[in-house]
Design a protein that fits this description.
The protein is α+β, with helices and mostly antiparallel strands. It has one domain. The protein has 17 helices and 19 strands. It starts with a strand and ends with a helix. It holds the Pfam family DUF674. This is DUF674 family protein.
């Protein structure tokens, strides 16, 4: 039977509104856990129907772009299923919605690999070993070390377990108290509390995913969930994007980041943009947004980053719920970090830090590990008594230990380089980015189709070249989230 979380809601049926909810730590932990999810994971979990700005279109673009345009096959896999930097903590949530495997180890299957002594592994499929072989063989999952690896509601995740919490309809979280209850009565003009109905919701992972979606685009996700209000399609216009795709050249040239240049096909009167012709650096910037945790977006943009109410949830961490937080988790939620090697131009611009690469000691040589994985480390030590002495049956390597090191899956041909951070190959190939941020390889057929559909006369079109500054790229990323 699927695990559920019970949440009490207090409903004003006359107004068809949930005023607030009350729960223990399990539900609050799940809510705060949303902030650690990379945006690409959010889109994937919601079936590419998150309705969060242009993220669905970006995700579909990654899916549809041939692997040949990425540095490695792993780069595409990283964007489609980004690893949560706080996955170790989130494993302890009573109900988990993120099914990403963060501890899986991939190695190349060549036991004669010349890089055997390096004992390197990848956390995503499709990386290229230094010998040129794909790291496609699953060697099992790394053992979880330290705390945070459990899976029961008794485990400490983000908040203390001895507190009852009040969660408002717009996801403000605070410890339950009489003063808070009375202030909510005043806010919602509740003269007779006996008229409120108390109901208990059983939230499964599917229902929690529905709540995640509502929280992205609604200021009243609890009411919407309880009354099963239809989630309306995002009907926002794209008026922010043209201003960012053909920005005025300002005096902030000193902020120019790596001279990101684009060419924009637009109307002469600046009323609309048809598309932008861009290089791999600009595509990297857009695609990298999928690896950024939701909490980091809230930190960078606050209320401007979402039409929903995650800004309220985020501000509760060092606000109304601060005294109930497990101390070491407060910073983890306020400044979520990327998993190792997920750093990119978008994370640099938004100042999102990256975790150090994982390491793992094993009680076997790396060759035996490649053969048997974590499940069969003992093969390295199997012995037999022969002619008055013990002899190893499978392996003569000594010492019979190895220190596994995580390898950068973005590195083409297994090259070691500190500056390999982009997902997309840089070169002669240009791309077309439409006004809703669909990314396609540039071709005459694609551009002509866009021009035809726009039904704009040639005399009204003009191409402009723009050099984007850091501040303009920050605004463009924000526009991608809300329009």
């Amino acid at each position: 039977m699927a695990t559920t979380i019970d949440v009490k809601v207090f409903v004003d049926k006359d107004k068809s509104k949930v005023l607030f909810a009350e729960s223990g730590k399990d539900f609050v932990d799940v809510l705060f856990g949303f902030l650690t999810l990379p945006l690409g994971t959010v889109v994937r979990l919601l079936g590419k129907q998150s309705q969060a700005g242009c993220l669905d279109a970006l995700y579909k673009s990654v899916e549809e772009l041939p692997a040949a345009f990425f540095r490695t096959d792993a780069c595409k896999a990283m964007l489609l299923a980004p690893i949560n930097g706080a996955a170790k903590k989130c494993c302890s949530l009573k109900v988990r919605v993120d099914d990403t495997k963060h501890r899986v180890v991939y190695v190349c299957g060549d036991t004669s690999c010349p890089a055997l002594a390096d004992a390197e592994f990848s956390s995503v499929p499709g990386a290229v070993c230094k010998c040129g072989t794909a790291m496609a063989k699953m060697a099992g999952e790394r053992p979880e070390s330290g705390g945070g690896g459990g899976s029961g509601s008794g485990d400490r995740v983000f908040v203390r377990g001895d507190v009852e919490f009040i969660i408002t309809d717009d996801l403000q979280v605070a410890p339950a108290s009489t003063s808070l209850m009375l202030s909510l009565f005043d806010k919602f003009k509740v003269d007779d509390p006996s008229g409120l109905e108390q109901r208990t919701l059983e939230l499964s992972s599917d229902k929690i995913l529905g709540l995640l979606k509502r929280s992205l685009i609604s200021k009243n996700p609890l009411t919407g969930h309880y009354f099963d209000v239809a989630i309306e399609p995002d009907d926002a216009g794209i008026d922010l994007l043209p201003q960012n795709l053909h920005p005025e050249q300002g005096n902030d040239a000193e902020q120019t980041l790596n001279s990101v240049k684009i060419k924009v096909l637009q109307t002469k009167n600046n009323s609309s943009v048809l598309y932008a012709e861009v290089g791999g650096d600009f595509v990297d910037l857009l695609f990298g947004l999928l690896s950024i945790p939701l909490g980091s977006i809230m930190k960078a943009y606050g209320k401007c980053a979402s039409k929903g109410c995650f800004d309220n949830l985020y501000s509760s961490i060092d606000g109304s719920a601060e005294g109930c937080m497990i101390p070491e988790c407060q910073g983890l939620l306020l400044s979520p970090k990327l998993a190792p090697f997920f750093g990119c131009s978008a994370s640099k611009i938004l100042q999102v830090e990256e975790l150090s690469p994982n390491k793992q000691s094993i009680n076997a040589c790396f060759k035996c590990f490649k053969i048997g994985g974590f499940a069969n480390l003992t093969r390295c030590h199997e012995r037999q008594y022969v002619n008055y002495g013990w002899k190893y049956l499978n392996c003569l390597v000594d010492p019979k230990t190895a220190n596994l090191c995580e390898f950068n899956p973005k590195s083409p041909k297994g090259e070691e380089s500190d500056d390999v951070e982009g997902y997309v190959k840089q070169g002669l190939q240009n791309f077309m980015v439409t006004d809703d941020l669909r990314v396609l390889p540039l071709s005459l057929a694609c551009t002509l189709q866009v021009v035809r559909e726009a039904k704009i006369q040639r005399k009204d079109l003009v191409e402009k070249e723009v050099t984007l500054t850091k501040s303009q790229m920050i605004e463009l990323l924000k526009a991608a989230l809300v329009t």
